[in-house]
Amino acid sequence: MKKGLINHQKTWYKLDNAAKIFPGQSTSSYSNVYRLTVTLKEKVNPQLLEMALLKTMPRFPSFDVRIRNGFFWHYLEKNPNGAPPVRPDSANPCLRINPKENKGYLLRVFYYENRMSVEFYHVLTDGFGASRFFMTLLAVYLRLTGKNIPVGGAVLDVDEKPSESESEDAYLKYVKPNTAKAKRVEKFAYQAKGKRLPKHYINVTTGYMPVDALKKKAAEYGVTVTEYIAGVLVWIMYNLQKEEPFNRNKPIGVQIPVNVRQFFETETVRNFMLCYSFQLDPRMGEYTFPEILRQLSLYLRYINNEKNLQSMMNGNAAIEKNPLMRVTPSFLKDFGINVLYKITGEKATSSLISNIGLIKAPKEMEPYVEKMSLVLAQGMVNAARCGVVSYNGTLALSVTNIYESTAVQKAIFTTFVKEGIPVKIESNKSVITGGEV
Amino acid sequence: MSYCVNCGVELEKACKACPLCDTPVINPREKAEPSEKPAYPDMLLIPQSTNKLYLAFVLSLIILIPTLVSTIINAMLFDNPVIKYVVGGAALVWVWFLLPLMWKKPIPAALVTIDAVSLLLYFQLFKIIGHDTGWVDSFVVPVVIALWITVNVFLLWMKKKRSKSAIAVAMLAAINVMTLICELRASAFFTGKLQFVVSIVMTACCISLMIFFLVLDKSKRMKMWLHKKFFI
C-alpha cells in the first residue's frame, strides 16, 4: 500500500503555469491543439509507427499522461494504457482532444500515405517540447524501417533514462514573486471576418518557401525571418481593414509566442513560453510595408529581454498564486476562464504567428524527409493563425482560417510571391469545400 | 510543376484549381493526374456531439423522481389537490424542454403546436381543481391560440432569408398584436368592456420603432451616419 502510494506520488504532475489556463479555454470549437507533420519519401507503415510510439512514450514521462480533475486544479497522472492509438489522418486537423477518447492521451498520432502527424494538446508542451518528441518518434520509426539514425539535435536517446529536469515546471523555477509583475494592457484589435465554415471544419493552407530567400529578403529590410513574416501579417490585416466599408481604424495586433529557454536555462520539455503582442495604430496615419516592419522589429527587440520576460512570468504566476484563485473550485475556474477568454482573450490580436524555428536533426535523417510543417488550431475570431517551422532549408508557413473565404491566405502568399520568394502551396480546401480545388 | 497564373504560387500535382483563388489549372504539358495523392485525405473527422437522448433521459429522471415521491407522500399523508399543479407543471416542463432533445430533427411548427396544446391542457387543471372563475376560457385559451397563430405566421415568414431590420420589424409587429389581444381579452373579462390603455402606448412605441427599422433597412446613408455617430 505504502509502495503504491509512493509510486502514485511520483507519477503525477501539477499543470504548469501556462497550461493551467488551457482546460478552461478549450471547447469543441477552440481546441488549443497544434500539429507537427512530416512528409517522408516513402509510405508510412502504421504498424511500425505504433511500435515506434511504444518505444518513445516512456522517454517522455510528462507526455505519457492523462488529465484528471482535482478539486482546486486539474493535474496530469501517468496513463496506464501504454501509448495513444495510431489512426488514419483526416482533412480537418487540430480538433479538440477529448480526455475520454484517445485512450486518455493528450496527443494524437496520424498517418496518411507518406505523411506522419502528431497533434499535441497545449497542456502537455510547447513547440520546443513537441519538436523533441516528434523528431525522436520519427528517428525511432526510421530506425525500425532499417535506417541508421543517430541521436543528436532534437532527437533524444530513447534508451537513456529521462532526467527529472526534463519534466520540471520551469516557470516555478524562475518566478521571483517580489520583483516587477507585467500587466497586459491591450486594445481590442481589428478582426478580418467572413462567413464561418461549419463547426469542426478549418481551412489550412501551407506554403513552403526556401529559407535562404526569406533570410535574404528579411536582411534587406534589416529584420529577422519571424519579424518579416509577422510584418507581412500586419500589413495584410492593415490593408484589409482599409478596404472595409466601415473602417473603424482599429489597432492591428499580432501575437508572437516566444521560447523563454533562450534566456532561462532549462531542460524541460513541458511548456515554457510567453507571448509578445505587437499592436499597430492605424489612426496615426498611413503606413508603408517597410515602416511596419521597422516598427515591429524595433518593438520586439526592445521588449525581448530577460527582465521583461521575468516580469511577464511573475505577472502570470501572481494570478495563479492569488489566494482567492487557489481556493476557487476548478470547475468555477474553468467557467471563469472560458467566459473571460470568450470576451477578451483573442480580441486583442488580429493574427498569431508561432515560429518554432529551425528543427535541428542528424544529417542522416535528411535523405528520408521531404518536408515538415506546423499547423495551429483555429482561433475563435482570428482569420489567420500561422505556424512556422524550418527544416532542411525549407520554411513551412501554415495558415489556419475558420472562414470560407481564402482572401487572407491569398493575400499572405501572394505578398511573398511579389517580394520575389517562391511559394509552393498545399491545402485541405478541396475536402473542406467538397469542391474540385 | 504547375503555377497559378493569377497568384504565382506553385501548386501540387493533384490540384485542379488554385486553393487560394480557385483559378483552374491548365497545363497541357502536365495534366492533373488522378493517381497523384492530394496533400490531405478525403476524410473528415467529425467528433460525436453530446448524446441528446441520454441527456434527455437523465433530466427526465431528475424531474420524474421528486414528482413521483411528492405525489406518493401527498397521497399517503395530505391528499392536497394542489399536487396536480406540481405534476402538471413537471409534465409541462418535460414537453417544453426535454421533448425537443429527444427529437432528432425537430420541426419548429410541430413543436410550437405541441407546446400550445400542452399549455392549454395545463390550464384545464384549474378548471378540474375548481380554481377557475371563467378566466381560463375567456382569457387563457384565446391568448394561447393567438400566440400559436402569431408564432406560426412568423416561422412561415422566416423561411425566406430576411434582413436583421426586417426581422426586428416583424418581431415588433408580433409583440404589438399580442399586446392588443391580451388587453382586449383581459378588459373583456374583468370590466365587461373592450378598452385599450397599455396597448395604445405599446402600439405607439412599436410603430415608431418599426418605422425607424424600416427606414434603416432602406437607407444606406442613415446606416453610415449611425455608425459614424455611435461606434464604440
Description:
The complex is a heterodimer of chains A (about 425) and B (about 230). Chain A is α+β, with helices and mostly antiparallel strands. Chain A folds into two domains: about 10-165, Chloramphenicol Acetyltransferase (2-Layer Sandwich); about 205-435, 2-Layer Sandwich (Chloramphenicol Acetyltransferase). Chain A contains 13 helices and 15 strands. Chain A has helices at about 1-10, 20-25, 45-55, 125-145, 170-175, 210-220, 225-245, 290-305, 305-320, 325, 330-345, 405-420, 430-435, and strands at about 10-15, 35-40, 65-70, 75-80, 85-90, 105-110, 115-120, 205-210, 250-260, 275-280, 350-360, 370-375, 385-390, 395-400, 425. In chain A, the strands form three sheets. In chain A, strands 10-9-11-13-14-8-15 form a seven-stranded mixed sheet, sandwiched between helices. In chain A, helix 3 (about 45-55) packs across helix 4, helix 7 (about 225-245) packs across helix 8 and helix 7 crosses helix 12 (about 405-420). The relative contact order of chain A is 0.18. The model of chain A is unreliable at about 1-10 (pLDDT under 50). Chain B is about 65% helix and about 0% strand. Chain B contains seven helices and two strands; from the N terminus they run ββααααααα. In chain B, strands 1-2 form a two-stranded antiparallel ribbon. In chain B, strand 1 (about 1-5) and strand 2 (about 10) form a beta hairpin. At the A-B interface, strand 8, helix 12, strand 15 and helix 13 of A face strand 2 of B.
